[in-house]
Design brief:
By secondary structure, this protein is an alpha+beta fold. Helix content is 28%, strand content 25%.
Amino acid sequence: MNMSVELVKRLVSEQFPQWGELIIEPVKNGGHDNRTFHLGNSMTVRLPSGKEYEPQVKKEATWLPILAKSLSLTIIRIKEYRITQELLFTLF
């Protein structure tokens, strides 16, 4: 699946219309396992680069709330949802 700004814009606009007008830009060094995009000035959208990386989304959903209690920075998980039947995507 092509992880493009246009795809992220469409997904955000469809499922989070209140953020549909925010600027979306790819993170310069987005990594191998995920494709990460800036959503406005304070949020990110991360899409697994392939189905084999989808389990990491579920692992993060389990561990981030636990780890957040011990970290000095704030971690807020906003939403996790499916792009297609096969692929999860996370909005932080």
